[in-house]
Amino acid sequence: MEFTHLDEGGAARMVDVTGKQPSVREATALGLVRCSAEVVTALRDGTVPKGDVLAVARVAGIAAAKKVPDLLPLAHVIGVHGVVLDLAVLNEGVAITATVRTADRTGVEMEALTAVTVAALAIVDMVKGVDRSAEIVHCRIVAKSGGRSGDWTR
Q1: What SS3 state is found at 79?
Q2: Domains of the chain (ranges plus CATH)?
Q3: Residue from 45, 70, 86, 125 carrying the catalytic annotation
Q4: Computed from CA positions of residues 33, 39, 41, 44, in that sequence, does the dihedral angle turn out positive or negative?
Q5: What is the mean pLDDT of the chain?
Q6: Which residues sit opposite 100 in a β-bridge?
Q7: CB neighbours of 35 closer than 8 A, spacing ≥ 6?
Q8: Other Cβ atoms within 10 Å of 49 Cβ, number
Q9: 131 tagged catalytic
Q10: Separation CA 95–CA 34 (nearest Å)
Q11: What is the largest CA-CA distance in the chain?
């Protein structure tokens, strides 16, 4: 197996994508913030003391998708052309889905995963005063399309 982010000597490197042609690419990630029944009720009733948790989480996730090269040292600066971040309050907590699109030389899997995880962090931050046991679980890429490797679904 070849690791593209390592050179011949095993040192980390940024992969050169200069010669690749831009193409439409999309990735979707999911995650869950598991929290107490008390928090779920407060989310449904809009009574979380810190305010509109879902609105803050949505904006945090979208903003995070555009910051991936600042967070991951070997990630490429790409045009994030679309981010859809959906949140659903379930009996066990908040389900998060992020789909990110671009027309660039490399994929957006890390952007989608970052959107989900930062949205999840925002939720935990907003509810931790009510539920210190809130936890982030099951964050993962579930689909990607475009690029040289084509489509993939978990």
Answers
A1: coil
A2: 34-146 (3.30.70.640)
A3: 125
A4: negative
A5: 94
A6: 27, 83
A7: 92, 93, 94, 123, 127, 131, 133, 134, 135
A8: 9
A9: no
A10: 8
A11: 57
